[in-house]
Amino acid sequence: MILILAFIAGAALGWLRAARRGGATADRVQYAFAHGFAALVAAAALALLLGLFGLSPL
After folding, report:
1. pTM attached to this predicted model
2. What pLDDT, in 10s, does the model give residues 15-25?
3. How far apart are CA 56 and CA 41, in angstroms?
4. Which one of 6, 10, 19, 54 has the lowest number of neighbouring Cβ atoms within 10 Å?
5. 38 and 47 in contact (C-beta within 8 Å)?
6. Which pLDDT tens digit goes with each residue over 30-57?
7. Which residue has the higher pLDDT, 55 or 58?
8. C-alpha to C-alpha distances, 30 to 3, 19, 47, 50, 54, nearest whole angstrom
9. How far apart are CA 30 and CA 17, in angstroms?
10. How far is the C-alpha of 34 from the C-alpha of 25, rounded, in Å?
């Protein structure tokens, strides 16, 4: 669930950044996907690191 929320938050950030730059819909979708995937990978890495240190990421 945390990974899904991280993807959605990153996608929203990417969509807004593209909109502020005056991008078309295709640009907004591309930014949203790229930012969402980056946030997903960062959240997974953080959860893995916390797990290695014995903390529950959930």
Report:
1. 0.87
2. 999 999 999 99
3. 18
4. 54
5. no
6. 999 999 999 999 999 999 999 999 987 6
7. 55
8. 19, 11, 26, 30, 36
9. 11
10. 14
